[in-house]
Design brief:
Length: 744
């Protein structure tokens, strides 16, 4: 049979499959395969192997990662057998739970896992013996401990949260099997700590020695792409109006900034010989997060000014110099940074009661432009230091990194509480079934429920990965039976055991290293290691295997069902919660209940922007919560903070007008936080215009205060007619730009 007939046969099979599968739902696996077949792609006779197609775009790193995981697993098994540990399968499982493609992140996770395991074991040693006479109370206490750990882990969005997750579900695997045999809790806790610590150490050693990929190398790569994208976007924002491409660029920068900070938090555990400390990473994050609100504000003000009329010569000259400074000319042609800032000051018009709307917007523009120059200059200094961290940091970097606190990040106590409640409910349902039926393997079912509910609690909708987990538990039961009754009895020696394990562990590790299949690979590794239950002595009993593994399966099903009923929220619901949290914070800023610094506000809001970005539905052309709206709220908060911080230095009339303006904004944001549509009326616009008049009239006014109020008006009322100056008597002298706007 020649190639032509083979190709015709394949086409006939393709057509038949397409006809038979077109009635399947598009969301199902078969439906997706049918959609793929409907594309009628021509066959490539030069098609490569499945491994090449799977790792396409990822290089050889997935293969290295999978082999390292396998070597670490074999090393852990060898040591477990040599030391005659009780359950070597736990060491195998720990290797895959701990392993990360980046060696520094793995070492950090390893440390947190050991601490969490020790804390969970100690908690069970304290709880179980003290409630030995009341198994029901013991079960309830363990459920509450696991729920508490899940709640705390969701309030900590740093890698440290893994410690609380481990403390929870490790306690479940130690505590629940010890409820009916409390005398064994100490031995079980010690065994688990030994086996898990062994798996952690083996994973850390192998991944650190064999072709390690440092966190700092990934940080440098991401930093270069983020700085290049920011440079392009900022330069384009000065010379052209916003475009869909610019919007996508902003989204990419926001995602890169969030990822940079996550990578930076793992640098303390990195394998690279020289890397910046955490304080320097935090200081850099404070500077780079300012670029998005400043750049978008400059872009918006320039669009408005060009609509009002041609730009004056001084402003055009200042913009041209800054544009060139962003890298579009050779370094020898660039003016010094001080000259660029002086040009911005020279382009700033004098302000007074008769200042036009264009002059007020120009004041806002030049103020933000100077801040943008300072922020970009600081980012360039940090980037130069990161390029060679072996050199001592400059005085500016040391000053910025000194006494800086952790990054302000968004937390959602309500969702954390709901997740903990769902986990407690699922474990309670499973525990009731265990106690009512006196099922011998019911303890493992409750422990499996704890893992299913807590390990994936950070996801908006954990049911897809939970369904994969349940499916793989069922499929791996057949695989384990094949191993236990066909493969393991037919081999002798540790070498052959290693060979047969490779058929499952190598593909699992390969999937874990590919982002699109990472969750499936992790679920496969967990279920296989958990169900095969390798011990130092071969004991294969079909009834025992079915009972223990059915416990894992039932527990996972209960966890999936309860999560589906109680915990699942969609992307729009999650985005709604993010925006309502922003509105609550804006209301607190407006009424003075909270007054964070600009850096703290920008850090928290950009974190929310990143979270909102990941929840943006790709299939929805006009989502309810736009990425640009979150950036506007970021700028809005910055303007409120600036105006409130400067207000005490204003004369009493200006303070009263600012207070009236804020008093009108606070109820508006509180209504939005409660989900009510509360459009701002002409009264709020009038209050803002009065505040502009009072501040512009005041001789003590600074351009920063004027810029902040103008920014509020532009953000809250983008379609309002231009502000018209009101004739006020007597006329007050105008503030000179050189007196009001400092370049220091």
């Amino acid at each position: 049979m020649g190639p032509g007939s083979a190709y015709a046969d394949v086409r006939r099979i393709r057509t038949r499959m397409r006809e038979e599968m077109k009635f399947w739902p598009s969301s199902s696996l078969v439906g997706r395969v049918a959609a793929h077949l409907a594309k009628e792609r021509p066959l490539d006779c030069r098609d490569t192997s499945w491994m090449t197609r799977l790792t396409k775009g990822n290089g050889i790193r997935p293969i290295i990662f999978s082999v390292n995981c396998y070597i670490a697993t074999i090393l852990a098994l060898f040591i477990s057998f040599s030391l005659d540990l009780k359950t070597p399968a736990w060491a195998m499982l720990t290797v895959y739970l701990t392993s990360q493609p980046l060696s520094g992140a793995l070492r950090g996770k390893a440390i947190y896992r050991v601490i969490g395991t020790f804390v969970g074991g100690a908690a069970m040693v304290a709880i179980v013996p003290n409630l030995v006479d009341a198994p029901e109370l013991t079960t309830l206490a363990i459920i509450l401990w696991v729920a508490l750990c899940a709640f705390v882990s969701l309030l900590d969005r740093t890698p440290r949260s893994y410690m609380f997750v481990l403390s929870g579900y490790t306690a479940a695997f130690i505590g629940f099997p010890s409820v009916l045999t409390p005398g064994t809790v100490f031995d079980t806790a010690v065994s688990r700590v030994e086996e898990i610590t062994l798996g952690v150490v083996c994973a850390a050693i192998v991944h650190s020695l064999i072709f390690p990929k440092s966190v700092f190398s990934a940080f440098e790569e991401k930093l270069r792409s983020a700085m290049a994208a920011a440079r392009r976007w900022l330069a384009d924002a000065l010379v052209q109006q916003a475009t869909p491409q610019a919007e996508m660029e902003r989204r990419r920068i926001a995602a890169d900034v969030s990822e940079l900070y996550v990578l930076g938090t793992s640098l303390r555990f990195d394998t690279s010989p020289h890397h910046p400390d955490v304080g320097t990473i935090r200081a850099f994050d404070r500077k780079i997060v300012a670029l998005l609100p400043l750049g978008s504000a400059v872009e918006d003000r320039l669009t408005l000014l060009r609509r009002l009329g041609p730009l004056n010569a001084k402003l055009s000259d200042a913009l041209a110099g800054v544009h060139d400074w962003f890298g579009l000319k050779t370094p020898g042609d660039l003016r010094p940074v001080a000259e660029l800032k002086e040009a911005c000051v020279a382009a700033t018009p004098a302000i007074g009661p008769q200042s036009s709307w264009a002059d007020l917007v120009t004041v806002n523009l030049t103020a933000r432009l100077i801040e943008l120059i300072d922020s970009w200059q600081a980012c360039l200094g940090f980037a130069a230091y990161f390029a060679d961290p072996a050199q001592p940091p400059s005085a500016e970097i040391r000053a910025a990194a000194a006494h800086i606190g952790p990054k302000q990040m968004h937390t959602d106590p309500g969702m954390a509480l709901l997740s903990a409640l769902a986990a407690a409910t699922a474990m309670g349902v499973c525990a009731f079934f265990w106690i009512a039926t006196e099922w011998p393997e019911g303890a493992y079912a409750v422990a499996s429920t704890a893992v299913t509910c807590t390990l994936f609690a950070s996801l908006d909708d954990a049911t897809p990965i939970q369904r994969s987990f349940v499916t793989l538990l069922a499929l791996c039961l057949l695989l384990v039976i094949v191993y236990q009754f066909f493969l393991l009895p037919a081999i002798g020696g540790f070498e052959l055991l290693c060979a047969v394990l490779a058929f499952t562990l190598i593909p699992a590790g390969l999937l874990m290293a590919i982002p699109a299949y990472a969750q499936v690979g992790l679920a496969l590794a967990i279920t296989f290691c958990l169900q095969i239950g390798l011990q130092t002595r071969y004991t294969a009993d079909l009834a025992t295997i079915l009972n223990s593994n059915s416990g894992f399966f039932v527990g996972a099903v209960v966890g999936l069902t309860v999560t589906r009923l109680m915990r699942v929220i969609g992307t729009q619901a999650s985005a709604r919660r993010l925006m309502r949290a922003t509105y609550r914070d804006l209301a607190d800023l407006a009424d003075g209940r909270a007054l964070p610094t600009r850096d703290q506000w920008a850090s928290r809001m950009l974190d929310r922007v990143g979270l909102l970005l990941y929840r943006q539905p790709r299939f929805e052309p006009h989502p309810q919560y736009e990425f640009a709206d979150a950036l506007e709220d970021l700028r809005l908060g910055v303007n409120i903070i600036e105006a409130r911080s400067i207000a005490p230095s204003m004369p009493e009339p200006a303070q009263e007008s600012l207070a009236a303006m804020f008093a009108g904004l606070a109820p508006h944001f509180r209504a939005l936080a409660r989900g009510r549509v509360a459009p701002l009326g002409d009264d709020s616009l009038h209050k803002i215009d009065v505040a502009i008049e009072e501040v512009a009239t005041c001789t003590a006014a600074t351009h920063a205060c004027v810029a902040a109020i103008v920014g509020l008006r532009r953000t809250l009322f983008p379609d309002a007619p231009p502000h018209q100056p009101v004739q006020m008597a007597p006329a007050m002298p105008q503030a000179a730009p050189s007196e009001a706007l400092s370049v220091t």
